């Protein structure tokens, strides 16, 4: 096995993207993801890739759209306010069936908010990264190693399903260092993209990348076909990790940074004899509804823990569908909950079960 | 199972706390343990506060944020005031006494006053007070082998600044040797 | 007769005043350190101060009052 | 008899949706002719804006990408960076390029992106039904300046070529019109040069084409051209505002495309 | 009673806003809301108001933010892609506790989509009009008269709760004409805004309009206080209209344009002896959860009908919380469902009950 | 002895968070002095950008609004249209004004919005830790141009005063620096004029202030000023690029503020 | 209860169909009935298709979109082809036979061929074919009183173009009188 | 000898060719109407056509072919 190195989350994402064959990065500076762009700025020129600091997040996402339309793997990264600005472009990408990786290292909002970690863009990522009927793939790593792995997955599935993919993390994961094993380079095989607008060379009809359908019937058909793809993704791509859930009375659901804290709390709870476990969604869209529904048969209650005022909890409720009570505990504004706070919550709920 | 280290390093931005934390983190990694390193800074580019959480454990690390350290390294007064009460009983506190004249009045923690900045100035090691304090940490806790610590220095210094390795070694030794 | 006063609460020891002073009579205090950890500027040679205000004009932290 | 003029190959054999007499069609033809003459259809990718020309993607036989309103320069940048050997052009109206897309326009220009921008200035928002554009003339009556553009409240029109000429990244900035045969011929030359510059790696070229919108100006097509000559040309003088293509082609290394 | 006049929805919105004391309109042209801006452009200069065509939707929303910060009633209007562009600004307004009216005359998406009516920005409006933890008031009129009334409500509640309000409609409602009675002018009393940044005149401390809180604890506190306000709004401001629901076995839930179609279908269903009724949310946020929960006791099933691939249906499910089955029927891409299609759905569900 | 220089009243009595030797502080002072001298504190509303000066809202004693990154001109427009009698100024960095906010900047300028724009050009993104700005110099090393700004890939710096001077709506466009006593005095005059223009209803005034960022340039404060003089001033020549204030004040009716 | 009118007017943009619909709508409003008017156009500014749904009823109007009209006014061939089958049995179809030479072969609807464009040209009423056809509609259905129809014309013509009122009246009469 | 052909499928009767023709020999057909409802342009006087191509140069719908 390759040597473990210490790497910051943001830098690991950049390195992973490069390993995954991405040679086109377009971004605009924003805390707390700056290390990612800085890494790209350092490496891309050396490997014949493009690091381009765009004039804005809007320009950046549309550059990604352009590069992706040309058939290459392209990406951008930003943090919460910047993602709002990208939302029109992301909707266009979805509407044009274009892949592309978007990284959101979330910070506290709304507005300018703060620069500390947060998970309060969950709804934006999973329900409405822009206007109209569409979804994007959303991945929520909780370790830096997993970030690396999910960058590959995000590119691969994005290409496969021809849709944008987002890695949703937060300032804590972006800026912490952990030991990681980097993937070996040059072992990827990229999907063919016969649909790309890269010059027809008189070998085929001309390709059009477009999201305009003036005939509503055609737009409806296009949307329905896209949703059939979404349905297939929901079938096959839900991912989550469970820990101590087999016999759990109380299942904590948490992703990313907060899942790490919750895991500590679960260990502590078990030590006190409380049958708690944790389900950690790895894909936020598709949400791991099936696994939660499964647990709803054995568990007595659920607790969603988020670094927000409560967003994912609705997806947990939708999955559980009233079968068991679903509680919520959250911190917001850049505050990371402590394991002991979560433990308190677990104890209170366990006490009432 | 070796004891966990939950280290918090705190002071002004620019005092090298993040680098110091990295050295400690690498010392754990080299010994094959689980580790995490997490910086936290205020919004100021200069003159603000900065701190760094480092965890070393034999178990996977949940929260990388050290809220209740068992070791605290502090390099300015506001940070001492802010964090001193968070140290768990039995923990250790290492203070740069050049920067902080205040004394700690907790009896349930071991406190070491090291005039690290002064030591560095006297030894032509300007800017390495952070490493002196880590020398002291190592001396007090022996959280890793001396060899691992040395390798950690080598790993942490960027390839382009190899000449700094020896300076760091000397600073480390100053801290280890300081009584 | 002229004089400058440096409000140490504001001074960050940047030395812009030091360079701006045409008489070269401002320097950072080697000993004193303010709350934020900076060595504040001080007037070395009060007698020579002409109250020209050059230091104040350049002080980014508006720490200097000039009297004349 | 031989055919001396016919529909260019790169123009699709479909009816364009433009209003009768709208000069968008002429500009399309000039681009298609250029693509034919430079024999670059197979490696050209065009970018359609949001505006009356949104459906340009159906009218050219090269690959096409439809961009969000105003973002064509950014999309072009992405395409060009991904495929430096392709020839990338944007086709944009005044609302698209000079209002919502101003930042993208200025920045693609200052970056000296090696792309070709065809900027259709018809002093109005055509597609949405005739609102005031950043290039609408002082006093011009539009749907959203019903009493005539009042410069004190709505500001002054923007002269795009003049604005962009101040930027170091711009290789060619030229304003032409398609109101008469003579000007159409000049326009053709300018457009061709703007494409050639890209082929030669010389960087950002923009051709501003003063065009008509008979529908929203409320004029018959020929009257519209008359109005254009009488009102737009005095405000938007035709001519070359910047042309470094000669300097640059002799010294490619310094400024060459990327 | 004043005379009824025929008015287009878009124009009625404009006239109502003027009657409600709004003198500052900032917009950027987009179909299908252009009549609104055109109306403003005609009237505002005559009454000393401001009609300003901004350079973009982004500029427009930030002009609204500025005018609102100065303490006046300000508004903008757009359609789907334009709302995505406004999302950062809306998040800033929410984070700065500023009122302001946003009109979204929805069209089919994603991307450029089409220009026909749609309801597929429901999630964007109700869950994530931008990044971070926040909500805006969302109103969904279904007649032109109601549009007029809700413009008043939106301004009043926005001012009262210091938050942005959106009127979410669609191209059908925006462009149709119906008879309306216009409100009498000059009868409004505007809220005092002591917090406004309009020059302190040395009479008070200076006001700061801001959404930045670098201290996470402070940001959290601010967010929590804002959510307390939201909780109060959820208590008191839920609005909906019910028709034939008292004895309904099947309750259709639909808003705006689609609710009109569903009402026809309900009439037809009743004529065929099917006990169907309709609940029409008037506020989409706060969603009329209480009324739905109430009906969940008597109804046997729910059917959400939307002009989208299914968005509001999740809020219906969350309200019903598993007590009764919730079905969905939708058309997308600009297609307006027909009463007979909806009737078919009703019959199928009723048949299976 | 009498006090001949002291902290202006309009500047709050708090420690500013700027790095030691950062000239943002000087510019703040000049604005505060101007507000004092024109006696407009009670009706002035300032707009803080996103950038190092984001917390400007805490530093001026007038009402303040914090705008989204780049959108200060739009926010200013909203404020000014709502309260034409208030004096509105924006304070913006180069990333804010010339990158993400380019469209808003050009359009507020071309509209001739009766506002005052103080544009702090320090050739870098300060707050986010030293990335390349639209005004970073060719060859300048920054966090995102680690090998020096390569104009072929990253484009050319933008000269904002030159760009905006082409617009009819601009009344005053002047570039100043705060690197030495003499230039600070000139800067003060320019800033004062930019505010006076607004008071007199003359329309859009922008003062570009060449400023230092010792932290991200990696230089001691005085070295930074040296670098500024040696590198920025040649690229960004100081001076008045446009000044219609005299013409306009004699003929108010034509161009007066709204 | 009076019968509902579900009218669809269809043709090219620019043929005045929306205005015609407005006149009909006002005629209902004036008689105190519920009404709705809904335009629909293609993306072309000129030369595209346009159509307009008008509902008049004594009940609140649900869907303003007329999918199955009981009255259809058509002014071009594509629209006739598109909509002829949607007319409910027993409905009426009014065709501008100057624009459309095709004949309808449905026997369950009443079809009226009115050379409205030609009539207008002959009577110096260019551009008012739409109103001629509405005259025919009124003649066939008597969906409102003649007085209401006249008032509707007055209401529909913008205040600034009062002189058009009489021209419209004349066009209406042409339609009413056409056999 | 020269000739223009107007492809009626494209022609929208805008009359730009009519105005552009230096010989004034193009006009819209008063009778014929194409599918879209336009009266297409036609050459009135084929003998006078020089094949200069002015009409084609101005035709926005690229409906004209010129032979010479
Ligand atoms: C984000 C966004 N805003 C607005 C629109 C609506 N829109 C479509 S075309 C257009 C302007 C067209 O004007 P112009 O660019 O001058 O081109 P023209 O139609 O005159 O050729 C606008 C504002 C849109 N589609 N997307
Ligand atoms: C939409 C958005 N994008 C990016 C950022 C991150 N950001 C904060 S400050 C800044 C740039 C600051 O540079 P500049 O405007 O030059 O001002 P300076 O800090 O140098 O004074 C950026 C990109 C943000 N807050 N919002
Ligand atoms: S210029 Fe001001 S802040 Fe800098 S050293 Fe002098 S007094 Fe202190
Ligand atoms: S609306 Fe104007 S610009 Fe658009 S196609 Fe018609 S004439 Fe041309
Ligand atoms: S980072 Fe630069 S611009 Fe920002 S406060 Fe520090 S020195 Fe000034
Ligand atoms: S210019 Fe072309 S479209 Fe116009 S009338 Fe002549 S042939 Fe027809």
Summarize the structure.
The complex is a heterooctamer, with 2 copies of chain A (353 residues), 2 copies of chain B (179 residues), 2 copies of chain C (68 residues) and 2 copies of chain D (258 residues). Helices cover 15% and strands 21% of the residues of chain C.
Described by strand count, sense and barrel closure, the largest sheet of chain A is:
7 strands, mixed
CATH topology of chain D: Rossmann fold
What profile does the largest beta sheet of chain D have?
Answer: 7 strands, mixed
Query: What is the CATH first-level class name of chain D?
Result: Alpha Beta
Q: Spatial order of the strands in the main sheet of chain D?
A: 3-2-4-5-9-8-10
Strand content of chain A: 15-25%
Percent of residues of chain A in helical segments?
A: 40-55%
Total count of strands of chain A: 15
In words, what does this structure look like?
Helix content of chain A is 41%, strand content 19%. Chain A has 353 residues and is of the alpha/beta class. Chain A folds into two domains: 5-236, Thiamin diphosphate (ThDP)-binding fold, Pyr/PP domains (Rossmann fold), CATH 3.40.50; 240-351, Rossmann fold (3-Layer(aba) Sandwich), CATH 3.40.50.920. In chain A, strands 3-2-4-5-7-6-13 form a seven-stranded mixed beta sheet, sandwiched between helices. In chain A, strands 10-12-11-14-15 form a five-stranded mixed beta sheet, sandwiched between helices. In chain A, strands 1-8 form a two-stranded antiparallel ribbon. Chain A starts with a strand and ends with a helix. Chain C has two helices and four strands; from the N terminus they run βαββαβ. In chain C, 15% of the residues lie in helices and 21% in strands. Chain C has helices at 16-20, 54-58, and strands at residues 3-6, 26-28, 41-43, 64-67. With 68 residues, chain C is α+β, with helices and mostly antiparallel strands. Chain D has a seven-stranded mixed beta sheet with strand order 3-2-4-5-9-8-10, with helices on both faces. A two-stranded antiparallel sheet of chain D has the order 6-7. Chain D has one domain: Rossmann fold (3-Layer(aba) Sandwich). Chain D has eleven helices and ten strands. Chains A and E meet through helix 4, helix 8 and helix 11 of A and helix 4, helix 8 and helix 11 of E. One thiamine diphosphate (TPP) sits between chains D (50-53, 69, 93-96, 120, 122, 124-128, 133) and E (28-30, 57, 81-82, 85).
């Amino acid at each position: 096995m390759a040597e473990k190195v210490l790497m910051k989350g943001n830098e690991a994402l950049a390195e992973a993207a490069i390993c995954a064959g991405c040679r086109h990065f377009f971004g605009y500076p924003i805390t707390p993801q700056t290390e990612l762009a800085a890494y790209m700025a350092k490496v891309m020129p050396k490997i014949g890739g493009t690091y381009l600091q765009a004039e804005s997040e809007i320009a950046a996402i549309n550059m990604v759209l352009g590069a992706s339309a040309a058939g290459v793997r392209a990406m951008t990264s930003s943090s919460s306010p910047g993602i709002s600005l990208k939302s029109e472009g992301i909707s266009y990408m979805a509407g044009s069936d274009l892949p592309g990786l978007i990284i959101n290292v979330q910070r506290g909002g709304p507005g300018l908010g703060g620069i500390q970690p947060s998970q309060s863009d969950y709804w934006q990522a999973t329900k409405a990264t822009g206007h109209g009927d569409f979804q994007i793939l959303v991945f929520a790593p909780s370790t830096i190693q997993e970030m690396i792995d999910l960058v590959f997955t995000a590119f691969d599935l994005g290409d496969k399903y021809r849709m944008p993919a987002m890695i949703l993390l937060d300032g804590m994961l972006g800026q912490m260092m952990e030991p990681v094993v980097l993937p070996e380079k040059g072992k990827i095989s990229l999907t063919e993209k016969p649909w790309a607008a890269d010059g027809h060379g008189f070998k085929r009809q001309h390709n059009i990348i477009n999201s305009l359908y003036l005939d509503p019937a055609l737009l409806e058909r296009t949307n329905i076909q896209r949703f059939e793809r979404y349905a297939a993704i929901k079938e096959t791509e839900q991912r989550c990790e469970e820990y101590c859930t087999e016999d759990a009375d109380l299942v904590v659901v948490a992703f990313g940074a907060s899942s790490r804290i919750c895991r500590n709390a679960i260990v502590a709870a078990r030590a006190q004899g409380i049958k708690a476990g944790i389900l950690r969604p790895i894909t936020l869209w598709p949400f791991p509804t099936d696994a939660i529904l499964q647990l709803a048969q054995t568990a007595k209650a659920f607790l969603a823990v988020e670094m927000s005022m409560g967003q994912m909890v609705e997806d947990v409720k939708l999955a559980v569908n009233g079968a068991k009570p679903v509680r919520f505990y959250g911190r917001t504004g850049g505050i990371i909950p402590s394991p002991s706070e979560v433990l308190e919550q677990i104890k209170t709920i366990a006490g009432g079960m | 199972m070796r004891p966990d280290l939950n280290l918090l390093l705190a002071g002004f931005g620019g005092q090298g706390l993040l680098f110091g934390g990295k050295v400690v983190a690498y010392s754990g990694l080299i010994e094959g343990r689980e580790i995490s390193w997490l910086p936290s800074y205020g919004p100021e580019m200069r003159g603000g506060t900065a701190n760094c959480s480092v965890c070393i454990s034999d178990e996977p690390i949940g929260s990388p944020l050290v809220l209740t350290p068992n070791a605290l390294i502090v390099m300015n007064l506001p940070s001492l005031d802010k964090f001193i009460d968070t140290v768990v009983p039995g923990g250790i506190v290492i203070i740069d006494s050049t920067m902080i004249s205040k004394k700690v009045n907790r009896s349930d923690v071991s406190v070491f006053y090291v005039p690290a900045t002064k030591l560095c100035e006297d030894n032509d090691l300007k800017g390495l007070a952070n490493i002196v304090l880590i020398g002291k940490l190592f001396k007090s806790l022996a959280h890793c082998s001396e060899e691992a610590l040395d390798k950690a220095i080598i790993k942490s210094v960027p390839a382009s600044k190899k000449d700094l390795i020896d300076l760091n070694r000397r600073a480390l030794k100053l801290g280890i040797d300081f009584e | 007769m002229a004089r400058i006063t440096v409000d140490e609460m504001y001074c960050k020891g940047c030395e812009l005043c030091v360079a701006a002073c045409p008489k070269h009579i401002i320097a950072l205090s080697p000993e004193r350190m303010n709350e934020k950890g900076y060595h504040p500027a001080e007037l070395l040679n009060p007698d020579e101060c002409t109250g020209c205000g050059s230091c104040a004009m350049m002080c980014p932290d508006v720490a200097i009052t000039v009297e004349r | 008899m031989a055919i001396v003029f016919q529909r260019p190959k790169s123009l699709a054999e479909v009816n364009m949706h433009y209003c009768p007499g709208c000069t968008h069609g002429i500009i399309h033809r000039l681009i298609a002719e250029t693509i034919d003459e430079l024999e670059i259809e197979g490696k050209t990718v065009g970018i359609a804006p949001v505006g009356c020309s949104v459906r340009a993607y159906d009218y050219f036989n090269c690959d096409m990408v439809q961009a969000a309103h105003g973002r064509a320069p950014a999309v072009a940048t992405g395409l060009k960076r991904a495929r430096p050997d392709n020839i990338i052009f944007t086709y944009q109206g005044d609302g698209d390029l000079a209002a919502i897309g101003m930042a993208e326009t200025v920045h693609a220009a200052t970056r000296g992106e090696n792309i070709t921008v065809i900027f259709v200035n018809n002093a109005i928002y055509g597609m949405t039904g005739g609102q005031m554009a950043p290039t609408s003339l002082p006093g011009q009556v539009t749907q959203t300046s019903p009493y005539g553009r009042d410069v004190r409240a709505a500001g002054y029109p923007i002269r795009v070529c003049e604005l962009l000429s101040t930027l170091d990244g711009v290789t060619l900035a030229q304003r032409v019109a398609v109101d008469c045969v003579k000007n159409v011929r000049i326009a053709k030359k300018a457009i061709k040069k703007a494409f050639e510059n890209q082929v030669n790696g010389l960087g950002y070229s923009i051709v501003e084409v003063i065009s008509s919108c008979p529908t929203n100006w409320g004029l018959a097509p020929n009257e519209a051209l008359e109005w254009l000559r009488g009102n737009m040309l005095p405000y938007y003088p035709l001519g070359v505002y910047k042309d470094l293509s000669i300097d640059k082609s002799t010294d490619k290394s310094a400024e060459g495309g990327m």
